[in-house]
């Protein structure tokens, strides 16, 4: 490693000290997360400039990624134990199993309904910014992008909706607890619900054994939540490393070449955030108070680009800051990470469909075509959990279903990381909005959280 690169690496790790001092001096995690985000942006931008000073970012990035990726790995480690124990504990505390059905229906209704709205916004932005796939082919680099696309196409070929839904049902719970399948989170949710319902049946028939089960589940939940809080303490440092790496690796040339698409995507995402706020406002919830409580979660989702990794922070924020029931928080966070993602499964494939359809002479404002597109987008949002991989896979499901070629997805791979950060934040916010609205609608049937100290 060159001396200049070594010096910058040393500066990166030294920055952890003031961040640590700031973190320790604040009772809330939010200021430290914002400080980590700011330091990450500044350091990543400095690395872009330092290329002219003899600094080789490729020598530093593996070390920076080591910090960020290690933190994300720890969060992935939390996902399955947290989902299993939290949902099991929530079900065991529910007096009537009918409430579980109402929670599921309400959460899914919000997720899928907002995904339909997101698709319409994606169409509107594509038309407003006059986006078209015509003329986007870029010679030399096209082959490499198509090669990436072909690999992803192989993972979605042959999937049908019945097969996707069947994949949600667990076959080997130990296999799913390892996260081996793209649908493992939903499978664990289903297993936890079934296990909880069985515990309720035991409580009715054998009260003493039922009480012992409930006590055991409570102890396990306290234990897991303590682990969650320990790992959450590393959030500012993980965010700093993730953002620094993303900024340093960004290809500004690609961003400029597809500037209109990037701007249109961010405009659509911003509008969808406004839709979430409007839904909260209509239901008597202050959007300003809501966003003031959830923005640390959105910052992490933005920097990590992982809805699944954000589940622990999502659940904790819903329960402790938004005062949502643990059952609602866990259902919305788990479903929202795999179903009805507003950004990846709603806005993005709808925008690409319009971009491809226009040069082909399709009347994208035809009510039948538009209704078909929205329906396909909503149904396919279940399929994203079936293949994993986010927005590109959503496009690979929606475009063929609409009879459109998929090559456009390859052209946009280069700017995916930048846009995907905002899309992931939108996906996570959609899940938290679904949980908050469900709590408002079912509050009397599903009381708020019993805070677990520690």
TrEMBL record:
Entries under InterPro entries matching the protein: Na-dicarboxylate_symporter, Na:dicarbo_symporter_sf
Keywords on record: Membrane, Transmembrane, Transmembrane helix, Transport
Regions that span the bilayer: 6-22, 29-50, 70-91, 103-129, 184-202, 223-247, 259-282, 335-356, 368-387, 393-413
One GO CC annotation: plasma membrane
Pfam families in alphabetical order: SDF (PF00375)
GO function term, MF aspect, one: symporter activity
Compartmental location: Membrane
Topology of the protein relative to the lipid bilayer: Multi-pass membrane protein
Primary site of residence: membrane
Domain of life: Bacteria
Family of this protein: Belongs to the dicarboxylate/amino acid:cation symporter (DAACS) (TC 2.A.23) family.
Name of this chain's protein: L-cystine transporter
Organism in which the protein naturally occurs: Microbulbifer thermotolerans
């Amino acid at each position: 490693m060159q001396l200049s690169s070594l010096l910058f690496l040393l500066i990166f790790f030294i920055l952890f000290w003031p961040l640590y001092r700031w973190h320790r001096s604040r009772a809330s995690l939010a200021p430290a997360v914002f400080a980590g985000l700011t330091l990450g942006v500044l350091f990543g931008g400095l690395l872009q400039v330092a290329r002219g000073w003899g600094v080789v970012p490729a020598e530093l990035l593996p070390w920076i990624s080591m910090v960020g990726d290690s933190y994300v790995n720890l969060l992935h480690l939390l996902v399955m134990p947290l989902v299993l124990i939290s949902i099991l504990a929530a079900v065991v505390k529910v007096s009537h199993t009918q409430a579980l059905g109402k929670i599921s229906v309400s959460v899914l209704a919000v997720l899928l309904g907002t995904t339909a709205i997101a698709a319409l916004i994606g169409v509107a932005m594509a038309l407003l910014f006059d986006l078209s796939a015509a003329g986007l082919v870029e010679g030399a680099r096209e082959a490499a992008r198509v090669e990436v696309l072909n690999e992803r196409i192989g993972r979605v070929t042959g999937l049908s909706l019945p097969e996707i839904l069947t994949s949600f049902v667990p076959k080997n719970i130990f296999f799913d607890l390892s996260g081996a399948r793209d649908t493992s989170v939903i499978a664990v949710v289903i297993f936890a619900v079934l296990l909880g319902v069985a515990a309720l049946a035991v409580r009715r028939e054998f009260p003493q054994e039922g009480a012992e089960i409930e006590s055991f589940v409570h102890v396990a939940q306290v234990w897991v939540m303590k682990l969650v809080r320990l790992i959450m303490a590393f959030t500012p440092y993980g965010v700093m490393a993730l953002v620094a790496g993303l900024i340093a690796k960004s290809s500004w040339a690609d961003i400029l070449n597809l500037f209109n698409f990037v701007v249109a995507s961010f405009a659509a995402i911003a509008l969808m955030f406004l839709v979430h706020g409007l839904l909260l406002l209509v239901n008597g919830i202050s959007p300003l108070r809501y966003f003031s409580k959830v923005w640390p979660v959105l910052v992490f989702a933005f920097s990590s680009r992982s809805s699944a990794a954000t589940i622990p922070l999502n659940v904790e924020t819903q329960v402790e800051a938004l005062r949502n029931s643990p059952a609602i928080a866990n259902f919305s966070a788990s479903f929202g990470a795999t179903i009805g993602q507003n950004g990846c499964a709603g806005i993005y494939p709808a925008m690409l469909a319009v971009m491809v359809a226009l040069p082909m002479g399709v009347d994208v404002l035809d009510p039948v075509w538009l209704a078909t597109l929205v329906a396909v987008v909503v149904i396919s949002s279940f399929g994203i959990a079936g293949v994993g991989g986010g927005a590109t896979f959503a496009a690979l499901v929606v475009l063929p279903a609409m009879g459109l070629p998929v090559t456009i997805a390859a052209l946009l791979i280069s700017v995916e990381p930048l846009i995907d950060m905002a899309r992931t934040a939108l996906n996570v916010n959609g899940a938290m909005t679904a949980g908050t609205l469900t709590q408002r609608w079912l509050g009397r049937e599903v009381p708020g959280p019993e805070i677990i100290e520690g």
